[in-house]
Amino acid sequence: MLHNSLTGTLSSSHQPPTHVYKYSPLTQKCQPDRYTIRLLHLLPADDDNAPLRCRLVEKGYNDHWSHQVHPEYHALSYTWGEPIFPEVLDVLSNNVGTLSRSVGVIYITKNLQSALKHLRQKDGPMLLWVDAICINQADVTERNSQVSNMPKIYKKASSTIVWLGDESDHRDARLCMNFFKDLHELAASAGEDRPSASWRNRFEINRLVADFLGENRSKMVYFLERPWFRRRWIVQEVVLAKSVAMHCGAWKIDWDTFHLAMFELFESGQEIFTLDHRTTMRTMTGVRSGSRTITAVRNLGVAVKKQLPLDTLVEFSSFQCIDPRDRLYALYGVIKLWSPRQITMQLSELNNIDYSLPTERVFTNFATELLQIDARDLGPMASKYCLVTHALQLAGAFRHGNGKEDRLSGKIPSWVIDWTATLCFEPLQHSPKAGTAFKAHANNDAVQFIPARDNPSLLVMVGLPFDIVTRTIPLDISPMLLTDTVHKAKASLSKFLSQVAGCVEGDWYGPTAEHLIEALATSLVANWDHTPGNSYFGQDPRFIRDFLEQLRHQQYHLPEMLHKWPAYVELMAITMRGRSLILTAKGYMGIAARDVEAGDIRAAGYTSHCGENGAVVVPDCFDYRDVRYSYDVAMLAQDPSLYNSFRLVSDAYVHGLMKGEALEIMGRDGENLPLKILPIA
């Protein structure tokens, strides 16, 4: 989040001052529940063009204020932008008798200068907390401590002031902010005591939105593309605030007015916004049912339904930051707010912000702690998913847009989520844990790390190498995302099916004894596991049976079904985004990430193959034996390079293998399918 203001680029338009302001160290806290911050006393000026002058005053606060105590400062939420610091803030002395003497200047960005000039009062000082000024950016130790305190700083400020920027050449600030006010007044005019007028009021709101967008679409687009809306730190800055005031140029509105406008624009039904614009509007409101959006949480406060840290990080993965470590650090405040306390107590990383650590270490440390959370502390959330499985699924799903694996240039293990990447596909929903989980050992954790926990590189798990990918077949889903191009969707699916037909023999799918096309149609939607609850197939299980029955009556001509079943087309496109069909050595089919290759299970330096009895041969892997598991892991720890390790590639749906069938096969074939100790690098 934070730049070092002394290392940025300076403008040649300002002569170097006699000296740069030298920060004094903050007083060390003498009690564990106290913290100290600097407050910016922005001095008044009658002339808008007068130089910015301030005092920096140290202030101590207690963690456990009563609700009646209100600090006197406002916290600023704004965008740093490029690390270019052409403007200066003159810092005056705090000593009595020398109050007007300058003790140095702080270089600031042009956007921050503009914000301070707009917020500066004419008749008295304005007390603010501004990260770039109130934190000594050159002191990493102080920076770590103050960033850790930021959730408390924003939570206990009188208000959070959002600075969206100056008026632009597009004149979007005046038009959009006034439109937001008009919209809010119109919505409020119906009143709760006039329910009979609500339908008329709704028509007026729709007309106002349509008229404004018809004349000023470009202005609204420019407004929504202001950098603040994509800044990752705004999540905690707005969520934790007592109140929020939105400033843009000379105009100001409160958060409720802004939220209502975003809601109405999202619901306008006019296809004039890009996906990025709609994501901005959706995230700023409570539009998405069941989501943890900013406004939904602000309105619910501490009573908000708890969620796991991974859900929070995925929810706001589209928000950006400059320092990649802030992909985690910027959300630690809301993770602590939303996650059950028994879980956050196990994540020491949440209280250990450290900018001296490289990004790969920050990501790996967080993943290590996350994977070791005691499942008994998940409570009701344990029924949602297995935390270890979900974390590993996300490690495969977060990828860089060029299709090539970056993994921070090879510096983080494959089992660690690369939060700098993009979520390229949703993790698959597997069958209930009771049907698929291997209870391999009772006295050891599900995962172990090698070597030492403070610098892990290998994740050690117990599992069954069951099958090998022999062929991958991609499916172009882009035509299926366009409602007016059914013929293109049919052509894409027909090309895909002809490739499948050339790779398999017979009409029947051996593992489930159903027609091959029926098994394929089910695989392409991962056994309907991604079906939204409010979609057609989510309404009643009979609709799925109707689809499969009609597929049989159509002689399994799947492309001919597309125009009759648009709900299936949509579901297939959602499920297959970023994925390909896979075929295996044992005759299974399924779906996995697009970069899965023939020959996976991927073993470093070896080619896995099926043995005589159908077991997958994986050289140099320990067979799992309960009585010697700890000894074998210790052997791995002594020299991990001597043993075969794997790289996590993707989660997968394999048709006929997701409802506990592997356990049945293992029980039937016994010693031919032994469990293995699987090191994942």
TrEMBL record:
Region of interest (Disordered), residue spans: 1-22
Domain Heterokaryon incompatibility: 73-237
Top-rank taxon: Eukaryota
Compositionally biased intervals (Polar residues): 1-16
Pfam family, one: HET
Protein name: Heterokaryon incompatibility protein-domain-containing protein
Organism from which the protein derives: Triangularia verruculosa
Top-level taxonomy: Eukaryota, Fungi, Dikarya, Ascomycota, Pezizomycotina
